[in-house]
């Protein structure tokens, strides 16, 4: 283990021991202490759920926007390819007409 990992582990262990001692020597009855712990746990769970829901909404909005952008980009790409295809076909038709004209001259 590195020094920072040992330090973090020591801090966590110290906090756990401190919390355990605090609960043992708390001035309230065990039932009140358990109720406070449950209330704190419920609050933390509710806050975590709210944060998760808010994060999920942000991600959904970003993915929806990305999907719309991708759809627009794909349609634009297909349109450009279609126009380029028409340009290539026109070019080939012109070259074919030129080759036919040259062939006709050679056959006379």
From TrEMBL:
Gene3D superfamilies, per database record: Apolipoprotein
Transmembrane region(s): 6-26
Record keywords, A-Z: Membrane, Transmembrane, Transmembrane helix
InterPro entries, sorted: YtxH
Recorded superkingdom: Bacteria
Identification of the protein by name: Gas vesicle protein
Native species: Flavobacterium hercynium
């Amino acid at each position: 283990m590195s020094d920072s990992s040992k330090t973090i582990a020591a801090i966590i262990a110290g906090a756990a021991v401190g919390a355990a001692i605090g609960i043992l020597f708390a001035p309230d009855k065990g039932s009140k202490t358990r109720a406070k712990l449950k209330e704190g746990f419920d609050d933390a769970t509710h806050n975590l759920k709210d944060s998760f829901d808010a994060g999920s909404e942000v991600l959904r909005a970003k993915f929806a926007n990305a999907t719309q952008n991708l759809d627009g980009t794909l349609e634009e790409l297909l349109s450009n390819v279609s126009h380029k295809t028409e340009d290539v076909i026109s070019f080939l038709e012109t070259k074919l007409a030129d080759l036919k004209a040259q062939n006709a001259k050679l056959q006379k």
